[in-house]
Amino acid sequence: MLGTVLGVGVFVAVLALTTTVTHQIGKSFDVLRATTVTVVDGTPAAPKAAAPPGPDARTGFPADTDARLSALNGVVAGGLWWTVPLRNPAIATRPVAEATASGGRGGTVGLYAATPGTLAAMEPTLDSGVLFNSFHQERGEHVCVLGAAAARVLGITRLDNQPAVFVNNTPYTVVGIISDTRRLPESLLGVIIPARTALAAYGAPVDRPAQSVIHVRLGAAALIAQQAPLALRPDQPRLLSAEAPPDPRSLRDKVSTDLSGLFLLLAAICLGVGALGIANTTLVAVLERTGEIGLRRSLGARPRHIGVQFLAESTTLGVLGGLIGTSLGLVTVLVIAVAEHWTAVVEPATVLPAPLVGGLVGLVAGCYPALRAARIEPLEALRR
């Protein structure tokens, strides 16, 4: 019965926890995905005659991208960003010659260009300092914002002494350090400089196209994905490709289905282990009670009576194990949900049939021992 208790308990707990966890995953996943829209420049290389560039001829996006996106109803913030087109840039806290001599170069640090609207759309958490703003953007100031990982690599932990980061010997004053961000997580291992400064110093993006990331309100993603290219490029909206988030319901259902299938397989394995335990116990009982079986057969019991007796015993063990296992499984789910501050979600279709599942497991597990007991001959049994 202990095998069935464990099997059914794990079965109920796993299925209920799967429902609970997928509910939490789906809720968090939907909110982030459903509030992000990305617009990609369709002409990242040199503009073609059939595909005229935008007002800012170097990116294909207008120079006032932030303002145009903010004017759309449903947009919280949005802006333009790209990876600065430098091959292996020398990023350090000192000029290149000094940094090379002391090993102080940030070889793993990336370099990104962004507008103030992009920084707002990222929803960053500032560790210290401030974000650069439209003043720095319009004047092309040599300032930068560091991601937390980049700051650690470069050894910058404080801003009161106005540290600078050198990019190919060009100094950029660090005005802020970002400890976390909801969007564009790659920026945490990078140096972010104003977009206009990047265009003037390093030119337009080459290998990777410029992109616009937009933070939208819940429910507005599909509409903004349709309106953003037209608002940014009314002359050639097809040159910009808007990527709306996929349907959150289908994503949540897919996550739930995948997790449910995986954990259902694990629960089935646990039930199989419980079935083997019952079969082993019942078979040992048959071997130990051979004399009792022989005596019953000599008093007139037929093979079917012996078989039914052992099937009834194994089924009873299964039902009792199912009841106890169901109770323990529910208690486990409630304890975990309370500890994690979740809402416990338990399907009645999972809990109610569980004792019957335990009985079925016991019935199946007892078939072979019962068949073996029914085939014992009375004379041979009494001789033992």
TrEMBL record:
The record's subcellular locations are: Cell membrane
What's the superkingdom here? Bacteria
Does this UniProt record's set of keywords contain Transmembrane helix?
yes
Query: What keyword terms does UniProt attach to this protein?
Result: Cell membrane, Membrane, Transmembrane, Transmembrane helix
What membrane topology is annotated for this entry?
Multi-pass membrane protein
Can you give the residue ranges of the MacB-like periplasmic core domain? 1-223
Pfam families linked to this entry: FtsX (PF02687), MacB_PCD (PF12704)
Q: Which residues cross the membrane?
A: 262-287, 308-339, 351-371
Q: Where is the ABC3 transporter permease C-terminal domain?
A: 265-378
Database matches in InterPro entries? ABC3_permease_C, MacB_PCD, Macrolide_Exporter_MacB
Please tell me whether the keyword Transmembrane helix is annotated for this protein: yes
What protein family is recorded? Answer: Belongs to the ABC-4 integral membrane protein family.
Protein known as: ABC transporter permease
Task: Give the species.
Answer: Kitasatospora herbaricolor
